[in-house]
Amino acid sequence: MAWFGRFVQLANVKNSARPTNPNHFLTSLSHFSSTAGPAPAAAVRSRQPNLAPTRPDEKPRVVVLGSGWAACRLMKGLDTKAYDVVCVSPRNHMVFTPLLASTCVGTLEFRSVAEPIARIQPAISTAPGSYFFLANCTGVDPDDHSVQCETVTDGISSLEPWKFKITYDKLVVALGAEASTFGIHGVNENAIFLREVHHAQEIRRKLLLNLMLSDVPGISEEEKRRLLHCVVVGGGPTGVEFSGELSDFIMKDVHQRYAHVKDFIHVTLIEVFPIARVLDYNAFHLFPKLISQSLLQANEILSSFDDRLRRYATKQLTKSGVRLVQGVVKDVKSQKIILNDGTEVPYGLLVWSTGVGPSPFVRSLQLPKSPGGRIGVDEWLRVPSVRDIFAIGDCSGFLESTGKPVLPALAQVAERQGKYLAELLNSVAKAGGGRANSIKEIALGDPFVYRHLGSMATVGRYKALVDLRQSKEAKGLSLAGFTSWFIWRSAYLTRVVSWRNRFYVAINWFTTFVFGRDISRI
Amino acid sequence: MAWFGRFVQLANVKNSARPTNPNHFLTSLSHFSSTAGPAPAAAVRSRQPNLAPTRPDEKPRVVVLGSGWAACRLMKGLDTKAYDVVCVSPRNHMVFTPLLASTCVGTLEFRSVAEPIARIQPAISTAPGSYFFLANCTGVDPDDHSVQCETVTDGISSLEPWKFKITYDKLVVALGAEASTFGIHGVNENAIFLREVHHAQEIRRKLLLNLMLSDVPGISEEEKRRLLHCVVVGGGPTGVEFSGELSDFIMKDVHQRYAHVKDFIHVTLIEVFPIARVLDYNAFHLFPKLISQSLLQANEILSSFDDRLRRYATKQLTKSGVRLVQGVVKDVKSQKIILNDGTEVPYGLLVWSTGVGPSPFVRSLQLPKSPGGRIGVDEWLRVPSVRDIFAIGDCSGFLESTGKPVLPALAQVAERQGKYLAELLNSVAKAGGGRANSIKEIALGDPFVYRHLGSMATVGRYKALVDLRQSKEAKGLSLAGFTSWFIWRSAYLTRVVSWRNRFYVAINWFTTFVFGRDISRI
């Protein structure tokens, strides 16, 4: 704090040098150097996080890696009287992913779908032993019961990433998954995924940029058409919902606010090999030919819904001007996609949404793996062969030995696992097993069982699909149309985490209806 | 459109290759290749902007450079039955600058202070001869009555900037000003200005990053204090309002959501040489020593307000923990400021707000100049010696020959000039002088006269200053405190351009009051 003392001194000298000319600063500076000045170093209680192994007089520490559905639901449910919670993630918020597609075109605002973790579990910012660290986990040491982390500095060159170690009593890995590119060249460089708020921001900025660039004098009609060709690869719920939102945006807002170029903008949805989504990621790399030959048989959008609903979605989307095509993408260049048969598809905006797979970090972990390369867990979501490590959400899957299938990478699976594990850990703590290496004698209760509550997807123009059956074969409610859309909106509105965001989502929907979508490119 | 035809063909071939296996795509694809397919090239009416000199059967064209207060008020007021309007600007929205400081800490959302130009003047996106171009002006040719432009591609490497020319009947230069750095080394690289939405976004991201980084285990107390030292350079309304907002954020939200580090965060406001703001930019470069010696006499915040209000502001800010100091900045490094006497001031966030000066492009224009290097105008805001060119807002100033002082760079000056010029151009068009080179015989009416309506500034904690006098010496209302704050909020709420944003500003204020500020770092 030497610099600070000197700074104060300097300010005082300057003031005392002209005592005959008192000005407002005199007050402020004397105040500054006495009461408001920095307290002596000793008086500032050191709140340096102590992340060595917990002592008997401390609460046991649960370290949570990640801040998605699974991690956040877990943290919300954890009993902070029984545990200290430490969360490590490169983002300080949870994204309400089902509504992310709506933010790309301004139907919803970005902040309406982002929930700060400190609001989901206030302990991480207030309790003495609980923390949130904006960092990536770089290594797990099960024997030492510790994780290695490195701070996220976000491209600020003046900041060196800071490395630190956290010891855990319980470790929950909830690192999620990352977008699958199936090793296709150029996807990472040229396509935009749709998994984080910054992806949605990038899509919105690029879409608005292209709309404006295409209106510039002297640009050829072909280039104009390319700039305004929005291609979505992947016919799952995200790709379909985004296509629907995009066509709504075009029909209402582009026609009104970009009338000069409205006839040039088009949306194409390319459905590619849904089969690869359920296959082992590695299998695709080993047998790409085999798989690509069998693809055309399996092509269809929204494969998790039944035939009737799929037909309805197809009809609605084509009615809205979305072109549905099938193809196998071979290569992605900066302005065009090249299909397997050599066809070139120029584009101005390319959104890639062909499912997810485990991240390189998850694959690199020396832990048991499930089919598909996820972290393998038993029926209680424990990682066997190591102690006190659990895995939930998209990064985890049942081990083959459990005889259960790997669950799909869905928000509702992750959320349910987070809730289950919070209850399990709370009961473990009550039984005195919170501390590291103390769990083995404790009964864990019922294993985790997943019951599918149903699927929903909007297709634009106030229409949606709702399928409340446990599987395609089961009996139950499945419907499509405006009523479904109303159910879709109501259901998600009640699922939004906080009252603040619930309020903003409703307000956003209202203003989109009344004033149209916002087109400022900020 | 060759690629498109081929694409359609391909899709059809694929479908016809398996006629025994009809699926939903068959419908969609036949639809795609017939009705919803691209219309033949001839049928798509070419809407390519024609920006050659206007023909007698066209409306005369007003080209507006810029999208700030002056440009937007002008475009709003222009009679689009008499003129085609073409706006050239690197951003497609206007920023409601008086509320920008509030967005840095989340009191308001970014979009609540950004107004799309297409909503201010809908003609630019719908009328056949009116356009908005996302571009920078790179040259003005008064003899040819044309401007050269280059599209903004925003760092997207696959897009080459596109150059084009626009011919004007009337040209309005409203390019604004840029932040003054007085040639101090390192300011552009390390400090953040506060003039655009992306500046506010950068400040918010950096502030939240620093709050989180400072909580990481093992970081030294000195580094923690540096990361959380927010330095504001410049004691004008922007610097003061930002400091006030920042201290509000610290007192409420940091104490609640970043409780671990709340004792380490501090705000320092450094006031530097207000004298340089009214001096010729060039003079400062010629006589830097002379000026820096005289600086300490003139140091005080909010120099445009009277003593009583300034004293009040000083008291309020220091009460909120803002340190007010004076100094001459010599050099800015990535983590510290160096003052003239060698004192080093470490910082984590540096916001620079020491007034504005003409941009290099404005200085490079071969047009008459006012004192201070702005574009020189006569009493009717015309640029003499060239025909049909007008200049308004911060980029313009009265010529010395008019005997009038250069007006301050304020939103209310720019707005008034925009309004005045819109009326002048409308009446010129009515009198048949809209066309290039046809204005000279027409009486222009009353010259532009600026009457200052007063100044306002918030200082945080529901307090503000309001001075409704024309000058410090004049009689009239001047008050400080909660009532002023209420006047400040009400006044700005009514000034916000659209009902949509007025609604959102009110909602943002409401949710900030109820739920606190948003701290998601997106």
From TrEMBL, chains A, B:
<dbReference type="InterPro" id="IPR045024">
    <property type="entry name" value="NDH-2"/>
</dbReference>
<feature type="domain" description="External alternative NADH-ubiquinone oxidoreductase-like C-terminal">
    <location>
        <begin position="452"/>
        <end position="518"/>
    </location>
</feature>
<keyword id="KW-0576">Peroxisome</keyword>
<feature type="domain" description="FAD/NAD(P)-binding">
    <location>
        <begin position="61"/>
        <end position="418"/>
    </location>
</feature>
<dbReference type="GO" id="GO:0005777">
    <property type="term" value="C:peroxisome"/>
</dbReference>
<keyword id="KW-0999">Mitochondrion inner membrane</keyword>
<dbReference type="Pfam" id="PF22366">
    <property type="entry name" value="NDH2_C"/>
</dbReference>
<protein>
    <recommendedName>
        <fullName>NADH:ubiquinone reductase (non-electrogenic)</fullName>
        <ecNumber>1.6.5.9</ecNumber>
    </recommendedName>
</protein>
<dbReference type="GO" id="GO:0016491">
    <property type="term" value="F:oxidoreductase activity"/>
</dbReference>
<dbReference type="Pfam" id="PF07992">
    <property type="entry name" value="Pyr_redox_2"/>
</dbReference>
<keyword id="KW-0285">Flavoprotein</keyword>
<keyword id="KW-0496">Mitochondrion</keyword>
<comment type="similarity">
    <text>Belongs to the NADH dehydrogenase family.</text>
</comment>
<keyword id="KW-0274">FAD</keyword>
<dbReference type="InterPro" id="IPR054585">
    <property type="entry name" value="NDH2-like_C"/>
</dbReference>
<dbReference type="GO" id="GO:0050136">
    <property type="term" value="F:NADH dehydrogenase (quinone) (non-electrogenic) activity"/>
</dbReference>
<dbReference type="InterPro" id="IPR036188">
    <property type="entry name" value="FAD/NAD-bd_sf"/>
</dbReference>
<dbReference type="InterPro" id="IPR023753">
    <property type="entry name" value="FAD/NAD-binding_dom"/>
</dbReference>
<keyword id="KW-0520">NAD</keyword>
<dbReference type="GO" id="GO:0005743">
    <property type="term" value="C:mitochondrial inner membrane"/>
</dbReference>
<keyword id="KW-0472">Membrane</keyword>
<keyword id="KW-0560">Oxidoreductase</keyword>
<dbReference type="GO" id="GO:0005739">
    <property type="term" value="C:mitochondrion"/>
</dbReference>
